[in-house]
Amino acid sequence: MPHYPLMIRGARPAGKIEVVAPFDLTPIATVETAGADAIEVALNTAHNLYNDRSAWLPLPKRLHILDNLQKLILDNAETLALEAAREGGKPLLDSKVEIARAADSIRVCIETMRTDAGREIPMNLNASSSYKLAMTRREPIGPVVAISAFNHPLNLIAHQVGPAIAAGCPVIVKPADDTPLSCFRFVEMLHAAGLPEEWCQACITSDLSVAEKLATDPRVAFLTFIGSFKVGWMLRSKIAPGTRCALEHGGTAPVIVAEDADWQAAVAPIAKGGFYHAGQVCVSVQRVYVHESFAFEFAQKLAEVGNKMKIGDPTLADTEVGPLIRPQEVTRLNMWVREAVAEGAVPLSGAEQLSETCYKTTVLWNPSENSKVTTQEIFGPVICVYLYRDLDEAIARANNSPFAFQAAVYTKNIDTAMKCYSKLNASAVMVNEHTAFRVDWMPLGGLKQSGHGIGGIPYSIRDMQVEKMLVVKSPNL
Question: Which active-site residues does the annotation give?
Answer without folding.
Answer: 248, 282
